[in-house]
Write a structure and sequence with these properties.
Helices cover about 0% and strands about 50% of the residues. By secondary structure, the protein is mostly beta strands.
Length: about 1150
């Protein structure tokens, strides 16, 4: 079965409270936003990778996809960031990692522009999002869902569109910058409104379910599981009146996926029970029939009881409700209201928004334009009961107990210290659901044992024990040998802890090993024993305090959250609880003082910022100043700026030390006022003033009390602009009411004067402010020549709207006159991008700048598309041909390197043949280089059968001369008139390639085999002997290349008639059977011809004395009196 993965992002993992029972949650409502115009969809995901859940929404009437950044606090607040305002009729939003870069991107459906789009996350703590359209023909796009539909490891997209009745799939090609292939799953889902993916038939791939409003249908589309899947449609239910939304989950805990739906016209919440068959069928049950105009549904375990509950949104009732599952095999549901103030409730989502371990609820409502969250405040408390069981009743004056897995079997054992029997004991847990315990003494000499603790003191992966004993003033360590039935080696850490009472283990110096703390009553001492970290550690003692009068107990914890372990103690003579701060940790910087001057300040005025931080364990390396209006200000401790926007700023700043530790943020409020004009003129009447070059004009408070002057005059300097008395002067200007005034520049001596005619504006509705460009967003940056670059900005106008835009580059000049645009025609180089904006009063802002780097396009590495090896697998003797298909999209492949993990580099050609590779399984790698020096490689496997030679049995019989004789007949001549013995002696050498066992047989002239006396056909008597005897019963083993001194053949002739006699010598390989018998195969044969000539034979035999003198006979043949040596060769090869 194929492996598969399901990624349904946003469904937060349930935090299981240990031992907690379910409880009924309560809810605290909070609006996240009330300006999501016709809020339609809400989703929760961690978009900025900071460990808490953010919110994204889609709102239809303002075409907006928005992101609400969670600040991560216990009671979180949210900062709104606009992803786009161009999703025309935004309906649905989803978050998933679409490009496999580890951060979450956004996918949306917008109904009025028929668009499925994705917004690529740039990553980091403050990501930006780049929009790309997936499809622009999803007619009436209503809903999107993201999952890996083809099990290829990347995230695909599903959509439901109501105008073309289509359920569609957009297959991700898996590239770093992915593209999408659209396929229609169905085009007859009349009024398709919702789509969801889950494995409905438990076959390991993701199927699809949908809700379509006009045909009242809940349908599923079975995935056939292929790499390029196809889908079989089946209706689950066709009477879901105005089917609006579907969700899949295991509602009855039977291991298969059921379906939950809400209907709009039918106002029904229903579930469809899956029967779990390979081709499942569904039983519909109504959960509630009063979900008035139901729009949204979500399934999650809201009350932490292990079964799946339901949350709904109903449009007309403005209600968010949840239905508690009773957990039965055939569950029933109890409905409860979460809120009735979600005006036009349309969507719900469930996630743990405040990281407190329970599931909160989010909603989108389109009448009040609200994105809201409902905090689950359940505390999951319950009234426990505790049945008592004695572990031991013989621990005499038991003083201390501790639990740990002492034998590494996965359950918790118990250790104890008892004072009157001086015992450290452990009680082994048998691991059952109702455990029993086996007691074992670890030490019975801990004199007055008072305290016991378990930790891995020597870093060997098992739990050791430390103890304190009062009578022998001892801190001891019992080393665990790590066995499944462990034993313990005792070692004293200290024997001078007078009246030792308590012991504790922790890593006090952050060096990765466990140190020991003790409290001793007799010497009022809190001590620590530093572990040297060795595998057999030693300990260096140091007193923490000698004034803990009657020290009784010690404990370690990080009390000040500075990353190191502090110490707590209890002492009974001075009635003290004390803590001892560990100063070894990395201390954060601390603010000494700061100053801002002037504060408040006027718009355009230079403001000086000063801060002074101290660092107890190092020095300051960086600062950070931020404004909630202007964003980042500076990374210096002291700086100045005249570029602050008008308004009430919340300024925050902090410092970082050389350990990388940031201080806490310091904050203050600062007001930047628009500079008003000088007093002492009559309202509406121009006046003239001569001012030095260094001046600031303030409005007289009496003018403020009487209505005051709200603005300077407008001046015509080719374009409308705001008079800035601190920076310049006006010429030929026109003020409100078309009152004309003039300015002149006077120079008198070395003093520069500014002479200004001013007019006071007393109408607060006509106050005129210049627009401001707050920031530019250019993505990607840097980028390469020919890549599309996206430009947008954050801008504002205090008293109106921005109506014109002017983007320019110092390289390419004018770029665009729109608020947002993109282009792929920028020249290579370092661009200074400028934007200025014009408001509806005709005033232009100052230009904002951003540097954009356009680099030459990067080289594209070559590709090895495939490797061809023929044959594969191959035999040891085969000639193997190697070739490949390779390419380089922007050049050519110029170098090659073929290598084997067994034989190393085997060729530097693009193709080659070889029969020289070692037998075995090779990883063959081809590495190719292009003409730009980049490379890539591909591996494949080649198997070469090892060489197995034929078994060759080959013998050589060597005569006395040492020659290896052939198999020709051997001729021997005897005289008939004499008693003679013929002896054929030789060595047998194994010249084959296997060890063999060898036997020999003689065939006599009469055709019989064997040794001893026999009479031939002429009634002549012969005696035949073989040495060693009986070789067919007892074969001889000869190793490869070894020789056997076989002894030979003796032929004794007496009273032999003249004539020719043939003897045949067979050499045989012997194979032993299981019963000890042998099977023989002849592998060599030599014929010996004996010619007897002369007169009739004599009738005598050797005497005993001749036999005893050993006149040439072989052992065991007393009648042999003469030996004539010859050599016989046997050479026979078996295939």
């Amino acid at each position: 079965m194929r492996t598969f993965s399901i990624f349904i992002l946003g469904i937060a993992l349930l935090f299981v409270f240990g031992g907690a029972e379910a409880t009924d949650p309560t809810w605290v409502a909070e609006d996240i936003s009330t300006n999501a115009d016709d809020a339609y969809s809400v989703f929760a995901a961690d978009l900025d990778s900071d460990g808490d859940m953010d919110i994204i929404s889609a709102s239809t009437f303002d075409d907006k996809i928005a992101w609400y950044v969670n600040d991560g606090s216990e009671n979180p607040s949210w900062t709104t960031s606009i992803i786009t305002i161009n999703a025309d009729g935004a309906r649905s939003v989803f978050a998933a990692d679409m490009d496999g870069d580890g951060d979450l991107d956004i996918v949306s459906a917008s109904t009025w522009d028929d668009t499925i789009a994705w917004y690529e996350n740039s990553g980091g703590a403050t990501p930006t999002f780049t929009a790309s359209n997936i499809a622009t023909n999803a007619d009436g796009a209503e809903h999107v869902f993201v999952a890996d539909m083809d099990d290829d490891g990347d995230m695909d997209i599903l959509s439901a569109s109501s105008e073309d009745d289509t359920i569609a799939w957009y297959e991700n090609n898996g590239a770093a910058n992915p593209s999408w292939s659209a396929s229609n799953i169905a085009t007859n889902a009349d009024g398709a409104n919702c789509v969801f993916a889950a494995d409905m038939d438990n076959d390991g791939d993701l199927d699809i379910i949908s809700a379509s409003r006009n045909d009242n249908t809940i349908a599923w589309y079975e995935n056939d599981g292929n790499a390029n899947p196809s889908w079989s449609a089946s209706d689950i239910y066709t009477e879901a009146e105005g089917a609006e939304s579907v969700f899949a989950a295991d509602m009855d805990n039977d291991g298969d996926m059921d379906i939950v739906s809400v209907t709009y016209q039918g106002s029904t919440l229903a579930w469809y029970e899956n029967d779990g068959a390979e081709d499942p069928s569904w039983t519909v049950s109504t959960i509630a029939g009063d979900v008035s105009y139901g729009k949204g549904v979500f399934v999650e375990d809201i009350d932490n009881d292990g079964d799946m509950d339901i949350v709904t949104a109903s449009l007309v009732e403005d209600k968010i409700a949840w239905y508690a599952n009773d957990g039965a095999a055939d569950p029933s549901w109890i409905g409860s209201t979460i809120a009735t103030s979600a005006d036009g409730a349309i969507d719900v989502f469930v996630a743990d928004m405040d990281n407190d371990g329970d599931m909160d609820v989010l909603s989108a409502s389109n009448e009040d334009d609200a994105i809201a969250w409902y905090e689950n405040t359940a505390d999951f408390t319950f009234e426990p009961s505790w049945p008592a069981s004695d572990i031991a009743t013989s621990a005499d004056s038991a003083r201390s107990v501790f639990a740990a897995d002492m034998d590494g079997d996965g359950d918790m054992d118990i250790i104890s210290a008892s004072a009157d029997d001086d015992t450290i004991a452990w009680y082994e847990n048998d691991g059952t659901a109702n455990p029993s315990w086996t007691a074992s003494d670890i030490d019975t000499n801990a004199d007055g044992a008072r305290s016991v603790f378990a930790a891995d003191m020597d870093g060997d992966g098992d739990m050791d024990i430390i103890s304190a004993s009062i009578e022998d003033n001892t801190i001891a360590w019992y080393e665990n040998d790590g066995a499944s039935d462990p034993s313990w080696s005792a070692e004293d850490i200290a024997t001078s802890a007078s009246g030792a009472q308590s012991v504790f283990a922790a890593d006090m110096d952050n060096d990765g090993d466990m140190d020991i703390l003790s409290a001793s009553h007799g010497d009022d001492t809190i001590a620590w024993y530093e572990n040297d970290g060795a595998s057999n550690p030693t300990w260096i003692s140091a007193d923490i305090a000698n004034s803990a009068d009657g020290a009784m107990s010690v404990f370690a914890a990080d009390m000040d959250n500075d990353g190191d372990m502090d110490i707590l103690s209890a002492s009974n003579e001075d009635d003290a609880i004390a803590w001892y701060e560990n100063d070894a940790g990395e201390k954060p910087p601390v603010l000494v003082d700061y100053n801002v001057n002037p504060s408040p300040a006027l718009y355009g005025e230079e403001v000086y910022f000063y801060s002074n931080f101290s660092d107890a364990d190092g020095y300051i390396v960086q600062h950070n100043w931020e404004s909630d209006i202007d964003g980042f200000l500076s990374n210096h401790g002291n700086f100045s700026t005249d570029d602050l926007s008008a308004g009430l700023h919340n300024i925050k700043f902090r410092a970082k030390d050389d350990d990388g530790v940031w201080s806490a943020y310091e904050t203050f409020i600062m007001n930047i006022d628009v500079p008003f004009i000088v007093s002492d003129w009559d309202t509406g009447a121009p006046d003239r003033y001569s001012l030095t070059s260094n001046f600031m004009l303030y409005q007289d408070p009496s003018y403020v009390a009487n209505g005051g002057c709200y603005d300077l005059a407008k001046a015509s300097l080719g374009e409308w602009s705001l008079v800035n008395l601190a920076d310049g002067w006006m010429m030929d200007g026109y003020g409100y009411g078309n009152s004309v005034y003039n300015s002149s520049l006077d120079v008198s001596g070395d003093t520069l004067y500014k002479s200004v005619l001013v007019e006071c504006n007393t109408d607060p509705d006509n106050v005129w402010y210049l627009p401001v460009v707050n920031s530019l967003t250019i993505t990607p940056n840097p980028t390469h020549l020919g890549e599309r670059v996206y430009f947008s900005a954050n801008y504002s106008d205090y008293d109106g709207d921005v109506v014109e835009f002017e983007w320019s580059s110092d390289i390419d000049d004018f770029l665009s006159d729109t608020a947002e645009f993109s282009t792929d025609t920028l020249s290579a180089g370092t661009h200074t991008i400028e934007l200025r904006v014009k408001d509806d009063d005709g005033g232009w802002s100052d230009s904002a700048e951003e540097i954009l780097e356009i680099m030459e396009p990067p080289n594209v590495a070559p590709l090895v598309n495939s490797i061809l090896i023929d044959p594969n697998p191959a035999d040891y003797i085969d000639m193997i041909h190697f070739s490949a298909d390779y390419s380089d999209s922007d050049g050519e492949v110029v170098d090659f390197e073929w290598s084997s993990d067994i034989d190393g580099i085997i060729s530097l050609e693009n193709s080659f043949t070889s029969d020289q590779l070692t037998s075995g399984t090779h990883i063959i790698s081809l590495k190719v280089w292009d003409n730009d020096g980049d490379w890539s490689s591909m591996n494949t496997t080649l198997f070469i059968q090892p060489f197995v030679p034929n078994e060759i049995i080959d013998f050589c019989l060597i005569d006395s001369s040492g020659a290896c004789l052939g198999t020709d007949n051997k001729d021997i001549t005897l005289e008939a008139s004499k008693l003679q013995t013929v002896s054929v002696d030789f060595l047998v050498e194994n010249k084959g390639n296997i060890d063999v066992e060898v036997a020999f047989a003689i065939t006599r002239p009469d055709g019989t085999t064997g040794t001893g006396y026999y009479t031939d056909k002429n009634q002549e008597e012969w005696q035949l002997a073989v040495s060693p005897s009986d070789t067919e019963t007892y074969p001889q083993k000869i190793a490869i290349g070894e020789s056997l001194d076989w002894g030979g053949i003796a032929i004794i002739a007496m009273k032999v008639q003249p004539g020719t006699y043939l003897f045949t010598l067979d050499i045989m390989s012997a194979t032993e059977a299981d019963d000890g018998s042998y099977a023989f195969e002849t592998v060599g044969q030599v014929t010996i011809t004996v010619a007897v000539e002369g007169e009739e034979p004599i009738d005598e035999l050797p005497t005993e004395n001749e036999e005893e003198r050993g006149t040439g006979g072989l052992p065991g043949f007393s009648m042999i009196t003469a030996i004539i040596a010859m050599a016989v060769i046997v050479l026979r090869k078996r295939d």
